Amino acid sequence: MSRYEEAKKIYASMGVDTEDAINKLKDVTISIHCWQGDDVTGFDSRASLSGGIQTTGNYPGKASSPEELMADIDKAFSLIPGKKKLNLHASYAIFEDGEFADRNALESKHFKKWVDFAKERNMGIDFNPTYFSHAMVKDNLTLSSPDEEVRKFWVEHGIQCLKISEYFANETGVPCVMNIWIPDGYKDIPADRVSPRARFKKSLDEILSTPYDKSKVYVTLESKVFGIGLESYTVGSAEFCLSYSTKNGITPLMDNGHYHPTELVSDKISSLLLFNEKIALHVTRGVRWDSDHVVLFDDETKEIAKEIVCNDALDRVFIATDYFDASINRISAWVTGVRNVQKALLNALLLPAKELKKLQEENEFTALMCLQEETKTAPFGDIWAEYLVREGVENAYLPQIKEYEEKVLVKRV
Ligand code: RNT
Ligand code: ZN
To answer: Which of 48, 84, 219, 354 has minimal Cβ neighbours within 10 Å of its Cβ?
Structure first.
């Protein structure tokens, strides 16, 4: 008997159908961030990375052109099983023949190459206005700026991005998730906390008053607790973003690096599911802070996946990755992180969820603990390996990445 057949039996004895788990996992789309490939640099500005986020490390082979980034995405995606969507930032606009458009004047045509790329690969595209790394980010403020010129510029950017998002949905035939995140905040204790938030609210209202097809574009709003250099106050706090989303019928987005270290996104998902038709996630790994480390197959990632799967919400949660590590091979970072999200989902799909819930409802906490612990040593790896075989990707991906590094990455200047 093969290892898979043996493992299948062991899971069956716990009341778990491994075929069902594998089939469900195949249908889950992960929206993969393009910005792991070039340390969040983009193509439209020479401004260095700002917005209170940071990449650290200097591993060779960073992509520095659309062609390089696309080639790297292809390599990474070829090593990732399952359904994928490409998650772009506005700063990845592609200009041709010396043409240039500032962020407030970006148009669909500046993303045509990405659309061609996605269509050829049968993928949808998600989108993000880029409110950082730009000269019009003045004193760390964008949509909440007291300077009307600055605020208007960024409102226009948001409006243009909505149009581009609709273009992505129309072209690919897949709805586009457009996520708004602004870095705005203050390093030190503000005198006035409400005015910037009132301006952010007004700016969002202005952006969202643009007509757009809500069946094609899902606007999400991402909150944050603090950024580097913005330690004391963040305009788009959790309370602001949740309240705004609920009141205005858009979708809240939780990034698990954006909370105080002992706060867990896994515990927040159920509450949001009760009050929202859809919710969105940025899956990342914060180490002490929002450090955007590569996602691992760790307890919190598993717990996040459990909350999605065991609450029957796979079709209600937009799952995206968001991390950027420049200290290791970037292709490997992509593959490792996305595979770990998928592993966590498979792990959750292999839980005897009904039985576990029943034990909780019946206050059988001794039995609950025993069964929860038993699931941890079930032969998960054999089911994962079988899933990879069926998807036609190899378990060991490092040799292929090393080969690509030698042939392509190290030759980049
Ligand atoms: C920053 C946010 C945001 C960015 C990307 C690049 O803290 O997490 O989502 O990481 O937009
Ligand atoms: Zn994020």
So the answer is: 48
What is the CB neighbour count within 10 angstroms for residue 63?
23
Q: What percent of the chain has pLDDT over 90?
A: 98
Q: Which two tokens stand for residue 117?
A: 């790329």
Catalytic, 157? Answer: no
Closest to 259 measured CA to CA, from 301, 222, 226, 235? 226
The neighbouring-strand residues paired with 86 are 32, 125
Give the Å distance between the CA of 46 and the centre of ligand 2. 22
Question: For the domain bounded by 29-349, which CATH number is listed?
Answer: 3.20.20.150
| Catalytic residue list contains 224 | yes
Q: Give the Cα separation of 129 and 303 in Å (integer).
A: 30
> Tens digit of pLDDT for each residue in 240-298?
999 999 999 999 999 999 999 999 999 999 999 999 999 999 999 999 999 999 999 99
pLDDT of 97 above 90:
no
Is 116 a catalytic site residue?
Answer: no
* Ligand 1 binding pocket mutation candidate from 130, 131, 322, 323 (most atoms within 8 A of CB): 322
- The reported pLDDT for the residue numbered 163 is 98
Residue 223 beta carbon below 6 angstroms from any ligand 1 atom: no
Q: How do the domains of the chain map onto residue ranges?
A: 29-349
